[in-house]
Structures
1.
Amino acid sequence: MIYILDTDICIYWLKGIDNIKDKIEQIGLKNIHTTIITTAELYHGAFHSIKVKENLKSVENFIKIIKPLPITKNSAKGFGRIKSELKRQGKIIDNFDILIASIVLDNEGILVTNNIGHFNRIKKLRIENWMTEP
C-alpha cells in the first residue's frame, strides 16, 4: 500500500510535527509519495515566503526523499470524470485537489490529508488524516 501526502501534510512534516514524523517512520519512506501538484504548491509557498532561499532548499531536499508521482493520461482522464461528477452535484472543489485525488486513484493509494471535507466528496478515494491519529 502506498500513502500519498497532500500539501498540508508535507508542510506539517517539514515543520517537524511529531504525528507526521512518527507515522512516516512507522510506515517507511519506501511507501510514502506525494504528487507533482503538491510539489508545485510547495514551490509556490517557498517563493511566496519571507525566507525564499531557505524554503526552496527545504522543498528541494524534500523531493529528493519523497518522489512526486506524475500526472498520467489515466489520471488526467480521472480528473475530467471527477470534476464533471462534482460539478453535476454542485460540490466542486479546487482543480489542484481534483488532480491530486485523480493521481491517488490512478496509483491505488491512500491520500493523507488534513483537508477531509473537500476530499470526502470524491467517490472511491481512500483518505487518512494523520493529524488526528495518535
Note: The beta strands are 3-5, 32-35, 68-69, 110-112, 126-128.
2.
Amino acid sequence: MRSKKGFTLVELMVVILIVGILASVAVPIMRGRIDSAKWSEANAAAGSIATGIRAYAAEKGITNGTAGFQGASVNGSLTTGNAALGLANMDLDGTYFSDACYVVSGAAYDAAGLDFVITVTAASAEGTRAEPTTPATMTYTVTDSGPVAWQ
C-alpha cells in the first residue's frame, strides 16, 4: 500500500481560493484603519492648536468684549506657524500633515465663552506626503456649549 505524501492540486487550489477571498475582504477594512490612524495625527495637532488658543486667551485676559483675537491674527492659515499661539514654522509638520494643512477660523470670545474651528485639509503643501485618501478635509470644532467635536 502506498502512503500519500503532499497535497493534491484540488486541495491547493481550494486553499488559494480561500486566501484570496479573505484578502479581498480584509484589504478595504485595513485601508480604512490606515486612514483613521493618519487622521489621528491631525487630531493631535489640532489639539495642540486648541491649547495654544486657550493659553493665548488666558494670558491676554481675553473676555467678552475685548478685541484680543482680532489684533493677534489667531485666525488664518498656519503655513508659517503662529507666534501668538506659540507655534513656530514647521511645529505642526508630521508624517502625513504639514503646517499648511491647518486653518483656524472663527476664534472669538462671546458672552458664553470661547469658540473656534480648526480645519485640516489632507492635501499637503509639499505634495509628497502620503496623506489620507478619505475624507479630504476634517474640522475640529470647539464651542462654549460642549466638548470638542471632530468631524
Note: The mean pLDDT is 78.
